[in-house]
# Entry
Amino acid sequence: IMIAMALVLEPALLIADEPTTALDVTTQAQILKLIAELQARHGTGVLFITHDFGVVAEIAHRVAVLRLGELVELGARDEVLKRPRHDYTKMLIASVPRLQPHGRAADAAAPVVLQTDGLSKTYVDRSWFGKRRDVAAARNVNLSVRRGQTLGIVGESGSGKSTVARCIVRLIDPSAGEIRVHGEEIAHRSRGALRPLRRRVQIVFQDPYRSLNPRRTVGEAIMEGPLNYGVARAEALERARRLLALVRMDPGALERYPHQFSGGQRQRICIARALAVEPELLIADEAVSALDVSVQAQVLKLLEEIRARFNLAMLFITHDLRVAAQVCDQVAVMSQGEVVEYGPAEEVFLHPQHEYTRALFAAAPGRDFAFAAA
# Structure
């Protein structure tokens, strides 16, 4: 609709400012195809602004690289992406995650931290005069995550990924099925009975700008969880200092407010806040989708270091297949509320079995482009 509005006056130039950011790969492919078709039909010039290098490789004829308001490199697509000259361009391209899975060996003997059996969530849509309509956001989802391992859930927007995550952390109540954390069933517990288990499962959300209370300092945000579980204030403060250092931020930031930080820094603060109660399972729900490639690479490296250091189980929700390939040991592919493929990341990425999985990978922008070697 927004593209149609922009084209109604038949402009000579269309400026597309991050139009595919946070979209899943199939929707991205549709938008990119539409822009290319409109460009060919109307002869419109397109200025495409993005931090997604897969999209750049897919649509651009020429590429301009900006840093701190300065144009540092300009040239034909292949020249810039395959033979970059400026150090900043080289750094950006080196930060682009590849679609090749990491191939890390998984410990099959590690204890199971999270297991879901038949997990389902149905929303009921009732209009004033219409009939009741049941919407199955998740159906019969069976997953397990072992200690020290990362399970990725990938799929299009609306496939049910975030619904599953919110059910697991009990932000919403599942309609059916079981959720077990270290063998303890939590799907049907009351809110009060869940309190002792809240600290064992923590979540980092997609939007770091809305995840923190703007009226509370960073220190208060990180200390809130430990204080709620009876940790003395002095100990909670010391823990907050250690966690900020862990996520590579100055402990002096404790007295500052969220608006004083960048998106990447806020996401680091959110990670520190999630770790403050020493969870056994960390859920990252699209935690890097709004970040540019260099900051994304830093946060992904941080999450991997945290997983290894604390031997955490991680559930990583993403629509970015490149990101999933870099961090996940196991991958579950969701479509229309169901898991259609599930297995080791290497198997799913290199030998996808389901038609939907193959279509998802085929839609990844710049999937076959040979970026400059790091």
